[in-house]
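[SOLVED] Need 3D model of a two-part complex

Original post:
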Amino acid sequence: MTAARWRHSGALSIPVHDYDPQTIERKWQRRWSEERAFEVTEDPSRPKYYCLVMFAYPSGHAHVGHVRNYMIGDVIARMKRMRGCNVLHPFGWDAFGMPAENAAIKNESHPERWTRANIAHMKSQLQRLGIGYAWEREFATCDRDYYRWNQWLFLKMYERGLAYRKRSSVNWCPGCRTVLANEQVVEGGCWRCGAGVEARDLEQWFLRITQYADELLDRIGGLEAWPRKVLTMQQNWIGRSEGARVRFALLAAGGSDTAGNDAIEVFTTRIDTIHGATFVLLAPEHPLVDRLADESPDAAGFRDRVGRFRALDRMARLTGQLEKEGFDTGRRARNPFTGEAVPIWVANFVLADYGTGAIMAVPAHDQRDFEFARKYGLPVRVVIQPDTGPRLAGETLEAASSAPGTVVASGEFSGLPSAEAVKAMTRAAEARGIGRGEVQYRLKDWGISRQRYWGTPIPIVYCDACGVRPVAYEDLPVELPDVEVFTGRGDSPLAQVSEFVSARCPSCGAAARRETDTMDTFVDSSWYFYRFCDPHNRTAPFRPESVRYWAPVDFYIGGVEHAILHLIYSRFVCSVMRDLGLVTHDEPFTRLLTQGMVLRDGAVMSKSKGNVVDPDEMTATYGADALRLYEMFVAPPEKEIEWTDAGLEGSARYLGRVWRLVTPFAPAFAAGAGSTAGAGGAVGAASAAPAPRLGAAERALRRKTHETIRRVSDDLDPRVHLNTAVSALMELVNETYAYCERTRLGPFAGASGEAAPGPDAPAGALGVVREAIEALILMLAPFTPHLAEELWESIGHAGGVTAAGWPEFDPDIARAEELELPVQVNGKVRAHLSVPVETAEAEVQRLALADPHVQARTAGQQVVRVIVVPRRLVNVVTRPAPAQRGGEH
RNA sequence: GCGAAAGUGGCGGAAUGGCAGACGCGCCGGAUUUAGGAUCCGGUAGCCGCGAGGCUGUGGGGGUUCGAGUCCCCCCUUUCGCACCA
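Solution:
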């Protein structure tokens, strides 16, 4: 239903419709699709720009929070396209993963059916929002033509020793019934379902990310266009620490002789405190613990205590609170620096999987060791005296002192500053063969085995004769078999599909058994951005030349929740691909923007909370353009926003206002009014009109137009302050309305309906309005593309806004002619001066001092200084005048 | 506990060390309208004042500066990240 009012324009009657987003949006979406408007090919003659949003997990329905980053990406992509860049802006689906499998178990259907249906629905949602993707490049990671290259990459890594298998204690999620990577354990729980993580011993495949730890860490400094927060998180996650590995010889039970060659190796960053190491602590899971239990006179009691530690610790760590506890093993080890026999305890707070799983305890200089020592009455020996403050003594110490200082009570090392002692003692340990300098990382190798169906099969075969064999490249892909019914029983669904499990050994041809685990889905997402460069390649993951053209990604947008998972894996895979000769750059993402979430009632939108806002509903009521504009305007992209219907209405109202401003002029503009014949450029059409002939109001509107172009251009690129760009466009509309009101033009043409200027309209009026309106439409185009295209066409332009290009501003026009300068006296504004811009500083100073308000404030004062900040302000600094007499000669 | 970021009107938010509160929401008033809605115009930090104008004001307290929301130090609060990494 279209409400149409009728207005008269000259002899003709033309309809002036209200803004009707539904019709306009459908029209332009159809046209973009028909024209394949966002498809691109490699074109060396133009600057490329790769704009990417993190692809989506097809969970079912996108809400207004999900689509925010797609909108941000679309604004940037459209703006860059208007600026003449060859823009790659693709989209795809991170389609493997557990929700699909869980849904399949619940519905007794197939994960693929659920996944494909969700993809179809979400794709239509994105299209309805007018997001301009190169849909011909779309793929899903569950496509066999995609995941075969996961397998290919895995084999390449296997060849280079970067993929390996080992039995290890892994994080097992009982809720999802699969193993989790360290990165996927959050506060002791599963990142996805929250269930408490258990320890299990399993044979697992790992990717050797630790081999790249130093490289990944070092290059953090070069990621200048990444949020500092993300870089800090990655730095902490890699967790490099320099220290030393030192051997404490194990003494035989009940004696002081060393037990053969047995030793406890500890890792420490403070070898300078080793003379204060009065005991040694083992993690409950340390390999030596079981042996010490065997050799203990009370083996059963020993085992019982260790067992309790092992079982309880993970649960206790969930809550973050763990009372430090331990027990004496009854055995001793020799401190290699003091020669002393020190007790060996098992302690619940020592981590098995960091360093060597054993530590030397220096209670005087480490708070944890201090608490432990005080609890169990173990000796505390001060070996570092801080450079300031009172002298420390072990007996009276109330807390450990970890500050550096001077080494004491440490034999030949006494007197050294602690930093130097670290070096000297490390050298000494190496010389005596009892230790060496070592670097430890918090980062662990990436465990990728998952005991689930809906993922990429790991292309490995186990042969009784030949052992672990990689599947031959020509036999890829190892396809997921069809499984009829998903029951969720059993740990590894593929293991129950006998046709899948039985295989031939790639080496000897004998009957063999296939690997039945699938890959972590983070493998899929660690290189998808390269596949977009050449998505249909059937003989390679991509053509290196295509990636060389498009990559690295210039602008990457996604949530901070991927700061250490996806973004560290992708950096790692990029380095591996570089070493494989596939890519030529070191880092995959030049600039990263982490967008804020959309909240409602203060909470993140989620189906379970029942607070989701459906973009389809908003679009049906207000239009996609209004929704887009609202989400870009309400806050800076990196900030979270609180959803309000009123805010969305405000944006819709603004677009109606734009519509009512432009449409009355459309017939006249389409007929050429206000433009200069032969003036090709969009904006600048009026600039051919000689400026001196324009009146002050006309010049002011032109200035606003050009200043707005400057501001918006700057806000979009490189700053990406989308909210202030929109507010500048709102100001331009307000100012154009004000001008039209004053000249009775357009929306103010009155009952007679004159869209064209009457005989008394100022010279050049239509020209300056046309210039303002054309600039406005073009700058709105990235935000509200449908409305912009429609209005652009309505004022007589064929060929669309992209071809029209981004408007240029003229600095001379953008500059104000007159300045309103505030004049401060002692920092407080007391007057304003109106001066021409070119006024000399001395003249400004003279005018300021002559101003009556300033005079009133400076009377009886001595003017000490006058500060003139060109184009900004004047500040007159005074102080009380000296007494009259003292001032005379 | 450690680390990072942030605290600005009734609300969302603007401000390369230079007039704090742009723009929007909400609210108030006017025009138009039979009326309402929509639309157009104007007002809107607080306090004092009829007014001109004045005083106060960016979580609190110090400091640097002619000038501080912005820079420095201390404290408070919130959010996020890490959480026994030896």
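Edit: The first strand of chain A starts at residue 4 and ends at 9.
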